[in-house]
Amino acid sequence: MSLTNASPADAAKAAKSASLVLSTLSAAARNEALDAIHAGLTAARDDILAANARDLALAQAAAADGTLSQSLVARLDLSRKGKWEDMLKGILDVRDLDDPVGRVTLRTRLDDGLDLERVTCPIGVLLIIFEARPEVIANIAALAVKSGNAAILKGGKESTESFVAIATVISAALARSAVPNAAIQLVTTRDVIPQLLALDHDIDLVIPRGSNDLVRYIKNNTRIPVLGHADGLCAAYLDPSVDATLAAGVIFDSKTGYPAACNSLETLLVHEAALSTHLPTIATALAVKGVELRCDPQSKAALSDTPNLTLLDAVESDYTTEFLSLTLAIKTVSSVSEAITHINTFGSHHTDLILTGSTDQAEQFMSAVDSAGVMWNASTRFVDGTRYGFGTEVGISTNKIHSRGPVGLEGLMIYKYKVRGRGQVATSYGEGEGQKRYLHEKLALD
Amino acid sequence: MSLTNASPADAAKAAKSASLVLSTLSAAARNEALDAIHAGLTAARDDILAANARDLALAQAAAADGTLSQSLVARLDLSRKGKWEDMLKGILDVRDLDDPVGRVTLRTRLDDGLDLERVTCPIGVLLIIFEARPEVIANIAALAVKSGNAAILKGGKESTESFVAIATVISAALARSAVPNAAIQLVTTRDVIPQLLALDHDIDLVIPRGSNDLVRYIKNNTRIPVLGHADGLCAAYLDPSVDATLAAGVIFDSKTGYPAACNSLETLLVHEAALSTHLPTIATALAVKGVELRCDPQSKAALSDTPNLTLLDAVESDYTTEFLSLTLAIKTVSSVSEAITHINTFGSHHTDLILTGSTDQAEQFMSAVDSAGVMWNASTRFVDGTRYGFGTEVGISTNKIHSRGPVGLEGLMIYKYKVRGRGQVATSYGEGEGQKRYLHEKLALD
User: Fold this and answer.
1) Residues from chain A contacting residue B126 (CB–CB below 8 Å)
2) Predicted ipTM?
3) pTM of the predicted protein model
4) Has UniProt tagged this entry with the keyword Oxidoreductase (chains A, B) (predicted)?
5) Domain B234-382 maps to which CATH number in 3.20.20.370, 1.10.10.10, 3.30.470.20, 3.40.309.10?
6) Under a CB-based contact definition with an 8 Å cutoff, are residues B126 and B13 in contact?
């Protein structure tokens, strides 16, 4: 890793060159670099925490002035219980994942002595733009090295001292490894994001990790592909055929488990036949956490006799709002089809849920809803790379190409085709007289 | 298919709605639509060829004026031997490909009764922008229907009558099928490309089929992902360890098989030790077709005694020029590493070739060259979806995400994650006391 004050263009060019070396290193060489990073960080614990304390002091002063939020201050703090240990363990976890580089995913014999192979390889140069959390830098450096990608990191200014301390250690560790130093670069100069976003020749993929506003800004200001999601406007459809207690449990978890998360529930679409049979049970469950319900007239009427609820009249914009808080918009529908249309029209294509006792209806919903995740009688909160068993998560994507849903290491890979021959030429093959035919024989992958 | 004079925005919105229906149709329903298109076109042969003849007459007049190229006129002509039959056979070929929709590519048991599945599904709405060739419209309609994607087609104006005639037939055929009419739309209004390229909310992928200029224009003018390549600047590295006759055969085919193709050879990098031993044999082979050689001083000197060559002095720009003609730029290098660096710096990441007798060197080259296709002792001209055995080809991509190299139906697909549960909630799982652990058990794919 280098701490660069180079121009963004020079940093990107250096990262591209480094990526070409990194992409050819063996798994062992990349894993050794991860070990070196882990050892370096372990040894430098006190220095890094001291740097983090300086960031924290400045942030706390800013929070006292009201110019910084308390939640950001909390995210900054590397000395919080378990955070340092989690950061270090994360590096070893990434090291121990299956190697994503060089996997053969297709092998075809075109003719005797002429074989085609599709092999996974790194994408190239990643630009990771993130906000305050200082542990992200170690996490991303590990993912980049493991996947054979170079990375340019641009973090939020509140963590500058922490970032520089960690980057210095990583840089020294990489210097003892086969990974080129410029493969991981921390850009500390300010206001360079627009310049970085213009470097589509050398940067292959942008991964924003932060607020919806950050993601939306980036998506609107670059030609480089962006992996991520701006919105997580998740909806549930409630069918009368489902058990009311089951539905209440799933909705409670989806809404209240972590309301600020992108996979939290924001809209509940209730079948009219479930208004009196199911909705009161659900609303009562949500009331325990004080969830505010913004209802259309029908659902509000259905809840009029239920005690202890916070009921408001919904306005149209409530159905397109990602509340990220203990608020749920409720709307009555007359069929699963109407729910599907609502979700495909107003949703964010992130994660949507059906609560139903009918397999056919569930399959219809999961087929027709155009979202990265479709859940049947299970919480939307399961949508997460770790929970899905991917070992790690780069982010959750609502893109329609490349990677969708929780993205693990696989999302940082592309492939190339290798053809090994013995002098064969294309004009020898075809349907004409005297021409050879292709075999197109599928070969085992290993 | 509808022949739309709707605004681009309305056309895209209608395509999006139609795509949501199309994506849920069974393989049988999609294949039936392809049969109906095939039958409709077969029955309407005379009308379509008459319309094509009218386009052709106008084009021939324009060619006589010098305002249109003769090669474009040739590409327009549907009555050329075999072209009509190929177009019809292509529809049945696409029908008979394996269904790309609904393939399960990952299945994980998160817990008993809580299963995760990754299932392929269509991307959504494709915008296909192409030039004169009228048969492309039938080909693309077939690919879109087969893959469950809606498509908006914008063709070159020279083929308007042919397009309209074919679109009318396809429209009538789709009306007898389960595929919504708006799933395939031909936009015939003029100058709408900039408007279409702005519709990133409803259009998910742009596929330009045409000249490099067209592709470059599109890549520079849209936020929608573009699948394709602007340049095919393919290079070969010639090592002295390879058999000279083998090398001459492969280079001859790569350069002269179809010089206007994107997978044709443009640059030859010769190891200095092969200048006297190999280059004269190769140059003599190329001279049969009159290939013009643009040489650096060393390679020119090496060829000074070889008769019948067309030798020119290379200028720097020759090594970054896609000639698309019988011209080859030759440069001397002192190692395979220098060749790799040249290719990664000046190439187009499309297809590159190594001619060597050394397995180690070949593997080094194929690992380090950052291109969609890397060939060892086999012609660059093999890079093609049909030759690779993909059944069809949407185009060749130099993108670093999603699809790279020749793109078959697979490149028109994305996936979604389906989770089927029985009321499980995320807060029940974790490392804490009393919490359940995830199983993360890999299940068989079928």
Assistant:
1) none
2) 0.94
3) 0.94
4) yes
5) 3.40.309.10
6) no
